[in-house]
């Protein structure tokens, strides 16, 4: 018998961590990047962790941020226990914890600002690490009321957008420590989807985010959101406090997180409006962590030094409205355009004028799930970019999909994402030349059973397509 190789150990600025060896990769899970936001630290900006002196076990995921745990008709669910407020951890997949100086991919999950975690198997980094020789990091951060509730002057200087302080703390930790895991701190790409993509652009526009990453992949960022100002956000907070039965912030801080989650569920019903994509909590223009809408800031050049891919799915809004008899196809198409496609194109136009172009894509592949009602819905590109459709067997939106189509399209997208992370150029032999967006060609790469390059749909064509798919 031969002795098993020793488990990988990495020295971090907070202390040493011991991971596991899994199918040719070194894997480290549940590494704290900031202090637990518990007790008086609830609804405070992320704070430094005190660290540890002994080797810390990093073989198991940390808890996810507290959130509703339920089955939904599109994804099948987007959060699983255990849950705990002590959730500010990250996970690393690497070919080896050595001095390899590999490109780094950081993943920020979405979830309507109320769900998701860096611990979900669908977001595990092993496909990218193995297929791309990358170091991959997934991040858990505060969601729902714990990450987004705005407390204003009642909370002093720490008011607002606690989620972004978590993510900035994680990126600072990655910059300072990824070399110990075989990564190159000078070649970091942050990728996010939906709320995670919104956050990525927001950090790229913030002074604190400068230099923490060098490229970004924005999958379905809801850049058409109209962000509330402090007065508007406080109205949401007062509604939340009324539903929770809390008279002041001290009472909120004393509540068990389980009660916070129950009140979050009540917020869905209290804020529902016909034809509105329901988001009970929003990022807020608090003047501290966000002083300008990220779309406006980026269009004015705030993130001009960060190269990027940006795209959307053809039928984003069916995610929310496919089963809603009160919402017609034209409304659905209009929400897709207003929240995602039009602002994405607007940002690309602005960047092209500034001579710092983005590369755009549209995901057109329509799933047969739900008798075709979904079309190319929000989140449907995720199993393809991660190339891990087998991990989405619980998701109704992939039901009935042709395995050969899924495999071929997944290979094309996954390789493009890897190429961009490695070099800044997503081209590879399996797709047409992916041109940067410019004012002359307005090129958008279209991912479907065939991958093509063309100018984007007009608004009229988009609305017609939506009507056909929802009949």
TrEMBL record:
Keywords: Hydrolase. The keyword Cell inner membrane does not apply. Residues 8-326, 332-452 form the Carboxylesterase type B domain. It comes from the Bacteria. Its EC number is 3.1.1.-. PROSITE patterns: CARBOXYLESTERASE_B_1 (PS00122), CARBOXYLESTERASE_B_2 (PS00941). Belongs to the type-B carboxylesterase/lipase family. This is Carboxylic ester hydrolase. It comes from Streptodolium elevatio. The lineage of its organism: Bacteria, Bacillati, Actinomycetota, Actinomycetes, Kitasatosporales.
């Amino acid at each position: 018998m031969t002795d098993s190789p020793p488990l990988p150990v990495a020295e971090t600025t907070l202390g040493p961590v011991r991971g596991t060896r899994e199918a040719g990769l070194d894997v480290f899970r549940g590494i704290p990047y900031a202090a637990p936001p518990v007790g008086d630290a609830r609804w405070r900006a992320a704070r430094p962790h005190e660290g540890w002196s002994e080797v810390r076990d990093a073989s198991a995921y940390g808890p996810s941020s507290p959130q509703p745990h339920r089955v939904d008709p599109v994804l099948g669910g987007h959060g699983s226990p255990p849950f705990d407020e002590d959730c500010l951890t990250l996970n690393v997949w690497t070919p080896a914890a050595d001095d390899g100086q590999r490109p780094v991919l950081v993943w920020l999950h979405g979830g309507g600002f109320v769900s998701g975690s860096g611990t979900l198997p669908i977001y595990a980094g092993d496909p990218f690490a193995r297929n791309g020789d990358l170091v991959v990091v997934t991040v858990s951060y505060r969601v729902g009321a714990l990450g987004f509730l705005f407390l204003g002057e009642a909370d002093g200087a720490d008011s607002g957008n606690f989620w972004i302080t978590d993510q900035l703390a994680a990126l600072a930790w990655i910059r300072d420590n990824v070399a110990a895991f075989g990564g190159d701190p000078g070649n970091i790409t942050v990728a996010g989807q939906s709320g995670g993509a919104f956050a990525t652009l927001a950090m790229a526009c913030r002074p604190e985010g400068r230099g923490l990453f060098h490229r970004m992949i924005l999958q379905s960022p809801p850049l058409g959101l109209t962000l509330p100002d402090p007065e508007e956000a406080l109205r949401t907070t007062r509604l939340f406090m009324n539903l929770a039965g809390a008279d002041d912030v001290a009472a909120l801080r004393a509540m068990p997180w389980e009660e916070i989650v129950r009140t979050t569920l009540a917020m869905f019903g209290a804020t529902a409006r016909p034809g509105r994509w329901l988001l009970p909590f929003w990022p807020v223009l608090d003047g501290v962590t966000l002083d300008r809408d990220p779309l406006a800031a980026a269009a004015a050049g705030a993130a001009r030094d960060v190269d990027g891919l940006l795209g959307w799915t053809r039928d984003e809004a069916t995610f929310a409205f496919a089963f809603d008899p009160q919402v017609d196809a034209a409304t659905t198409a209009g929400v897709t355009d207003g929240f995602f496609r039009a602002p994405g194109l607007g940002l690309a136009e602005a960047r092209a004028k500034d001579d710092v172009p983005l590369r755009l894509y549209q995901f057109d592949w329509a799933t047969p799930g739900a008798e075709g009602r979904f079309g190319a819905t929000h989140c449907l590109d995720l199993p393809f970019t991660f190339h891990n459709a087998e991990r989405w067997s619980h998701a109704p939106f992939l039901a009935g999909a042709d395995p050969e189509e899924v495999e071929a399209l997944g290979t094309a997208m996954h390789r493009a994402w890897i190429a961009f992370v490695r070099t800044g150029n997503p081209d590879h032999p399996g797709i047409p030349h992916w041109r940067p967006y410019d004012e002359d060609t307005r090129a958008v790469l279209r991912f479907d059973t065939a991958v093509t390059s063309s100018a984007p749909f007009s608004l009229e064509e988009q609305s017609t397509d939506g009507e056909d798919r929802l009949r």
